[in-house]
Amino acid sequence: MDLFRQNLRLEMIRPDFRGIPESLLPAGYSLRWYQHGDAVHWLRIHHDAEPFHDITTELFNREFGCDLERLGGCQCFLQDAMGRVVGTGTAWSAGEFSDGSLGRVFWLAVLRSYQGRGLGKPLLAAVCNRLRDLGHEGACVFTSTGRLPAVNLYLNFGFHPQIRSESDRALWDRVFAALKESGRLKEPAAAA
Predict the structure, then answer these.
(1) Which of 1, 25, 161, 167 is deepest in the core (most CB within 10 A)?
(2) Digit-coded pLDDT (tens) for 99-118
(3) Which listed CATH number (3.40.50.12780, 3.40.630.30, 2.40.110.10, 1.10.10.10) goes with 3-182?
C-alpha cells in the first residue's frame, strides 16, 4: 500500500532551540495569538487541510480544553494582507511524551490554497520560539507518513526522527526514500 495512504504515525524531536532557522513572513502576512472566537478559524483551517481526521468542535475542545485564556499565549494564527486567517499552530505541552523539558508543536496547518508560499516555516518558527519562551528546552511533533510535505518542513527545521525500534527505523527509511524520490529531500538524512 502507498505510504501516503497508510498515514502511519511519525514522531520527531528537536532537542533544543539553538539555531532556530530565521524565517521571515512574505510581505503582507502577519502572525497573532489566539483571541476570543478563533476556534472558528482553527476549525475552518483544519477542515480544509486535514485529510485524515474529522475536524469538529468536540475535537477542538478535547485537544485544548476550555482554558481559552491559556490559548491566548499558545495558539498562533497566520493572516494574509486582507486579515484573513489562513494558518495556525499551537505551542503546547508534550504531556506524557516528555519530562517537561520538551514542548509540543501541535496542530500546525495552512489552508491548502495558501500552501507552497513559504508560510509554514515562519509559523513553525513562531510556535518554537513561543515554546522556548514558555521554558521548554526543545520540542516534539507527531505527524504521519500521509503528510510528507510536513515531514520535510520539520526535517529542514532541525527536527529528527524519534526511533525507538527496528520497525520505526524501517518506516523512516521508507519516508526518506519517498522524500528523496519526490525531490523534496535536499540531502540524505540519516535515520538515527
Answers:
(1) 161
(2) 888 999 999 999 999 999 99
(3) 3.40.630.30
